[in-house]
């Protein structure tokens, strides 16, 4: 986790909020550093994490996690982390018909399917263990690249249904958190992606949007981060709070600064 | 407009990249196990697979793409387990060259090849691979090339536009056939037949694999993609590239080359209509292919005619699903052909995406204006923001990618005043 981002979001591992849906969105840049941040943050906060990693392999997250101070292998062995590795199991699911339904069942179907097996997997992973000890704090669901499901043949409405079911279970019933990443296709006119993105923006409590700089590529400022706090359930008596920062990604840390205040420029 | 505020450090980092490139392959760098066996890598092992080297940044195993200049732009090489997507140029003239360089590099390094095409027989593709350049031949090429290009002003100290002097130069490293990573090829000669015969390769020619008319039940993948995926999976499993065959003593890399993926010859109509019913076939194939690659010691190059794909959303999705994306744009038939800035080049090369593997950051090149040219024998990539001088009597024009400014340099050396005539951006 990045300490500066914790300060900006006003959260600490001891005092994590509950019942929130966070949307990570990136446009014209790579926002995956936020996924690493939230993964290490919730592992450090002693929460039970279910990570649906569709876009990269386990070793990738593990190596970056070690730079940020968490060990994913250790967390997985302890039972704190349930990791669904999409890439590794995709070929098996596709070619061999299993007996019991696999969470990635939809890969085999010709027509756009529903994500019910995936939801069952998540629910199974995050349900509280029924022995007396409360080992972990609130459960957390992390999905890396929800928009990838659209490329795999699932419709936008089915993905939104999945998010709805997960929210009802994880955020409301289990009082946990959800963090999902969706790429913003910008001017690529991806209608399904836009439906998904707008639907999620409407439901989320916190939106972190990374954008590339409007002026193009810069070595010292890698992009701009917009933080938007929302209250989807209550009528907005007060306006939603929004902040904008620019950032630079380093080897083990991300530094944030106000717009135009990059140390390279000053 | 890009602002390269600290060109000095840029030059420094490219210098250290150059020194890394010239190091020999076998270093004392202890690398963690390959990504293939990420789950069972006990501790660091010294791996010495021919034709690979660990990345200086994170120990990731890299293979050469066949063009040392492209390797440098991609941060040292192509990572094992990833996909390199080449967006074809409009008339498909230069992308087959990159495809062939990749395969030729595999043959020289002793890797196993898997060539898939719907248009040409893989055996024919292999016959047309370029021949490797040996030490003394390359030196001759380099010398006469440098001689032609040397202009007296190119090394003069610049007074006004001094920042351009700090731009990193494209490294023209010497012949590296003695080292084991990255070789130079002669595009005008064919590879010697005996090299092909001693190499191990598998070919997938679509018309031969699909003999009967389609009688299969509608799956989610186009029939051609399905067959190709099964073929690749079989090869990976049987030859033990995924670590499943413990008897295999000597580890090797599988280089997969897929030509013209997405074109109608593969049975996919994504290039023909905008709203096709099977639009997820290509993206699903890429995802499953990437899954196979990540769990094996292989690297893949795919050329795709993205300029034919009508639906821009699909191009965005394909880009997200690939690791490294390089786009070629040739000047043939476009208005850029007559632009004096591009006079010496045949096209532009765009590095659209570089993966961030095992890391938060990646080695992006600072300069985004890159152009390529195919000389008689060599395919070179150069930065286009170099100053050129047009010798027109007593006027010299300095052009760059970002600004155009006309300077007048008086012939009289005692009056070295520079007058700005016109500013156009």
From TrEMBL, chain A:
Alphabetically ordered keywords of this record: Cytoplasm, Nucleus, tRNA processing
Single GO BP term: response to unfolded protein
Function: Component of the elongator complex which is required for multiple tRNA modifications, including mcm5U (5-methoxycarbonylmethyl uridine), mcm5s2U (5-methoxycarbonylmethyl-2-thiouridine), and ncm5U (5-carbamoylmethyl uridine). The elongator complex catalyzes formation of carboxymethyluridine in the wobble base at position 34 in tRNAs. Involved in cell migration.
Subunit comment: Component of the elongator complex which consists of ELP1, ELP2, ELP3, ELP4, ELP5 and ELP6.
Gene3D superfamilies: P-loop containing nucleotide triphosphate hydrolases (3.40.50.300)
CDD domains, per database record: Elp6
Similarity annotation: Belongs to the ELP6 family.
Organism ancestry: Eukaryota, Metazoa, Chordata, Craniata, Vertebrata
Name this polypeptide is given: Elongator complex protein 6
UniProtKB/TrEMBL annotation, chain B:
This protein's GO CC annotations: cytoplasm; elongator holoenzyme complex; transcription elongation factor complex
Keywords associated with the record: Cytoplasm, Nucleus, tRNA processing
Annotated compartments: Cytoplasm; Nucleus
InterPro entries assigned: Elongator_complex_protein_4, P-loop_NTPase
CDD domains: Elp4
Pfam families: PAXNEB
PANTHER family per UniProt: ELONGATOR COMPLEX PROTEIN 4 (PTHR12896:SF1), PAX6 NEIGHBOR PROTEIN PAXNEB (PTHR12896)
Similarity remark: Belongs to the ELP4 family.
Protein name listed in UniProt: Elongator complex protein 4
Lineage start: Eukaryota, Metazoa, Chordata, Craniata, Vertebrata
């Amino acid at each position: 986790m990045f300490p500066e981002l914790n300060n900006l979001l006003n959260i600490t591992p001891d005092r994590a909020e509950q019942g929130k849906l966070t949307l990570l969105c990136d446009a014209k840049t790579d926002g995956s550093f936020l996924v690493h941040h939230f993964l290490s943050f919730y592992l450090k906060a002693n929460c039970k994490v279910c990570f649906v990693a569709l876009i990269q392999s386990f070793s990738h997250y593990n190596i970056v996690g070690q730079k940020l101070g968490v060990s994913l292998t250790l967390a997985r062995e302890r039972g704190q982390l349930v990791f669904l590795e999409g890439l590794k199991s995709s070929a098996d699911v596709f070619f061999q018909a299993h007996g019991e339904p696999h969470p990635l069942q939809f890969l085999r179907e010709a027509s756009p399917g529903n994500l019910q097996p995936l939801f069952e997997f998540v629910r199974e992973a995050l349900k509280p263990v029924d022995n007396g000890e409360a080992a972990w704090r609130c459960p957390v669901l992390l999905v890396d690249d929800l928009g990838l499901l659209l490329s795999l043949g699932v419709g936008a409405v089915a993905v939104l249904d999945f998010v709805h079911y997960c929210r009802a279970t994880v955020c409301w019933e289990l009082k946990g958190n959800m963090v999902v990443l969706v790429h913003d296709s910008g001017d690529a006119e991806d209608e399904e992606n836009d439906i998904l993105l707008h639907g999620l923006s409407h439901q989320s409590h916190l939106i972190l949007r990374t954008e590339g700089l409007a002026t193009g590529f810069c070595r010292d400022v890698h992009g701009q981060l917009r933080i938007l706090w929302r209250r989807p359930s209550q009528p907005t008596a007060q306006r939603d709070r929004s902040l904008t920062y620019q950032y630079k990604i380093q080897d083990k840390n991300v530094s944030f600064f106000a717009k135009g205040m990059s140390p390279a420029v000053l | 407009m890009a602002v390269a505020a600290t060109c000095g450090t840029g030059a420094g980092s490219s210098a250290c990249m150059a020194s890394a490139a010239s190091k020999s392959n076998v270093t004392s760098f202890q690398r963690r196990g390959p990504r293939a066996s990420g789950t069972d890598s006990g501790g660091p092992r010294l791996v010495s697979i021919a034709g690979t080297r660990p990345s200086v940044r994170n120990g990731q195993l890299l293979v050469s793409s066949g063009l040392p200049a492209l390797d440098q732009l991609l941060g040292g090489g192509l990572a094992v387990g990833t996909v390199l997507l080449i967006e074809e140029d409009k008339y498909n003239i230069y992308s087959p060259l990159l495809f062939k360089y990749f395969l030729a590099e595999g043959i020289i390094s002793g890797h196993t090849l898997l060539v898939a095409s719907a248009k040409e027989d893989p055996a024919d593709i292999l016959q047309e691979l370029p021949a490797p350049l040996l030490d003394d031949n390359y030196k001759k090429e380099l010398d006469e090339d440098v001689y032609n290009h040397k202009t007296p002003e190119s090394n003069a100290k610049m007074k006004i536009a001094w920042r351009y002097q700090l731009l990193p130069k494209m490294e023209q490293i010497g012949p590296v056939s003695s080292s084991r990573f990255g070789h130079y090829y002669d595009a005008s000669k064919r590879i010697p037949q005996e090299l092909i015969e001693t190499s191990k390769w598998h070919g997938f020619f679509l018309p031969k694999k699909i003999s009967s008319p389609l009688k299969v039940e509608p799956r989610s993948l186009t029939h051609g993609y399905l067959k190709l995926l099964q073929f690749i999976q079989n090869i990976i499993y049987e030859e033990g590239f995924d670590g499943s065959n413990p008897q295999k003593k000597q580890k090797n890399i599988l280089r997969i080359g897929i030509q013209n993926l997405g074109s109608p010859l593969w049975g996919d109509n994504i290039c023909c209509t905008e709203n096709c019913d099977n639009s997820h076939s290509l993206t699903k194939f890429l995802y499953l292919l990437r899954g196979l690659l990540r769990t094996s010691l292989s690297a893949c190059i795919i050329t795709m005619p993205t300029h034919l794909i009508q639906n821009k959303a699909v191009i965005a999705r394909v880009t997200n699903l690939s690791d490294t994306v390089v786009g070629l744009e040739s000047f043939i038939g476009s208005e850029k052909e007559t632009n004096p800035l591009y006079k010496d080049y045949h096209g532009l090369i765009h590095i659209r995406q570089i993966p961030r593997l095992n890391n938060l950051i990646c080695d992006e090149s600072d300069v985004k204006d890159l152009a390529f040219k195919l000389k008689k024998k060599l395919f070179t990539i150069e930065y286009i923001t170099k100053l050129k001088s047009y010798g027109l009597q007593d006027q010299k024009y300095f052009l760059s990618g970002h600004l155009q400014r006309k300077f007048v340099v008086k012939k009289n050396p005692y009056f070295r005043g520079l007058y700005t005539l016109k500013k156009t951006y």
